[in-house]
């Protein structure tokens, strides 16, 4: 009996070590050009193995894979690994190499898992990673992907090729914006907002709130006396985020239910509606998020409006979410 117990313990230990040391390999099923496909396939495999070999505090990626074009995917990945301890969960990942724009290539559908011990023991820790490379095989950017079916559905709503390209840009932007919260990249988030951005947080008013006194900046949303909204400047919002990032070593932001609309008068302005789930050690919430994004400068989109509210609001007797129709825009 004693030898049996020892054998089982050894077997269990060996199994754990093998599982913890998955060495993933990326295979491009449908590519662009054979030599480029092989280069990115090789470099992506090196990156994925570096993720699984990382202890969370460091990341070993060869210099030739790191970008020297200003966009540094290695730094993004390092911060993401540091804050989420992600691991690739499959040994062989078959996916396509997609052309994004201007000789930038995208790999989607890489299955990873967030460390459950960081995510408050939650079970919804499966994510998909997106990697972007240039034609030299250098890593330009890393982000968590939106849900695949929703991503494809949003592209099917395109009215023309220009709108389809813009929608791809918006979905990529939303993925990058979301992942910036996961890696606590305050500098990136700050650059995404217009200096005159309108930032709204809808809050439910408790019955005893009238005794606490509400600040003058609160107003009713859509005539619903159960909800108020607080407007903030960009600087106030960034300072609030700074405090949240300092207070929480782990932050997980998820987006679902994506809906994209185009402004009727300004075709370069889009509205994006999302359902946001925010988890951290000291603060968690979920609710409806709206972003109004200006793509006049495609290389530097700007957020004009960020509005969040916990529940649908009542407008003329109907439950609504904040969207682009509720704002007057004059450019």
Q: What is the radius of gyration? A: 22 Å
Question: How would you sum up the global shape?
Answer: globular
**Helix amount:** 25-40%
Structural class: alpha+beta
Give the overall average pLDDT: 83
- The sequence of SSEs as H and E is HEHHEEEEEEHHHEHEEHEEEEEE
Based on DSSP secondary structure assignment, what is the total number of beta strands?
A: 16
Q: How much beta, percentage-wise?
A: 25-35%
CATH architecture of the largest domain: Roll
Q: Which residues sit in consecutive blocks of at least 5 with pLDDT less than 50?
A: 1-19, 207-223
| Strand order, largest beta sheet | 9-10-8-14-13-12-11
First-last Cα distance: 80 Å
Give the number of domains.
2
| CATH topology term of the largest domain | Nuclear Transport Factor 2, Chain: A
CATH class of the largest domain: Alpha Beta
Main β-sheet description? 7 strands, mixed
What report would you give on this structure?
The radius of gyration is 22 Å and the shape is globular. The N and C termini lie far apart (80 Å). The chain has a seven-stranded mixed β-sheet with strand order 9-10-8-14-13-12-11. Helix 4 (148-156) runs antiparallel to helix 5. 32% of the residues lie in helices and 34% in strands. The relative contact order is 0.10. The protein has 331 residues and is of the alpha+beta class. It folds into two domains: 13-145, Nuclear Transport Factor 2, Chain: A; 186-326, Nuclear Transport Factor 2, Chain: A, CATH 3.10.450.
